[in-house]
Amino acid sequence: MAVYTHVPAEEIDAFLSRYDAGRLVSAKGIAEGVENSNYLLETTGHDGSGHRYILTLYEKRVDEADLPFFMDLLDHLGARGCLVPRFIADRDGQRLQTLSGRPACLIEFLTGISLTEPTPEQARATGAALGELHRAAEGFPLERRNTLDLAGWHDLAARCGEDFDQIAPGLAARVRDELAFLDAHWPADLPRSVIHADLFPDNVLMLGDRVTGLIDFYFSCTDIRAYDLAITHSAWVFSHDGGSFFADRAAALGAGYDLAHGLTDAERAAFPILCRGASLRFLLTRAYDWINTPPDALVTRKDPLAYLRRLDFYASANPAELLGA
């Protein structure tokens, strides 16, 4: 989440008048993330008891044509017991609006906090929640191409060019070498499904060791199912700078996923390569944002080199230790 588009309180209050949400009490911009503009709204509620919502304005990186996919996916998952925030319709049944020249939606607020230092038990709960999501996604009829697949990584790398070396000397060559490796080794025949594709700790809400919500589905797409676990692995089992690997978290994450869904032998064998792909994907997007984020945007830039360190780890890791096998 982030704030690129600043919306006056008066405009937000007028926007809320389309809903049974009450009047605006407060609106606070949410700075985390790099995709959309987000506000935490507090309202009087339709009965005066008070309520919270998330207001999201979709910026250029999210295609408005993809929004029905995200909306229908969250309805599908929610109907099958997943703790996900649903899009709220106005009095005319419309979920998608326009605000400050941007597509905009009002979204359910879920309780819970995002973690900064997950414990093994919290990693286990997250692995189980991801497995439950994959089970709930079975039968979802829509598909969405992953624009950040291997071809997308090549495109991002080309757009960054030699500017990689402004971040770290030799990074451009390291990216080229990794792309060549993944071109030769990326698995093509593993099971595919709808995936979250961005299940970082800040996209999991928890109370204690219990997951209370999975949020921010704007990268969700159809891709290799085990790649979703690899993305989650890369986000949950390292220190923030990527320099330390926590084997206890990794084992717990894998155990939780095995309990709720599990991996095939082929998925488990390919897992180190999927983790290398996940690391390169976030190295590339972070590098692109590092180079191109406007200086006046209320957004926290994230260190690309934290994912270079993960990539180096996965390239030399003992595959058995990745999931505690």
TrEMBL record:
KW Repeat (keyword) present: no
Range of residues in the leader sequence: none
Residues forming coiled coils: none
Domain Aminoglycoside phosphotransferase positions: 27-259
Pathway: Amino-acid biosynthesis; L-threonine biosynthesis; L-threonine from L-aspartate: step 4/5
HAMAP family in alphabetical order: Homoser_kinase_2
Protein name: Homoserine kinase
Biological source species: Sphingobium xenophagum
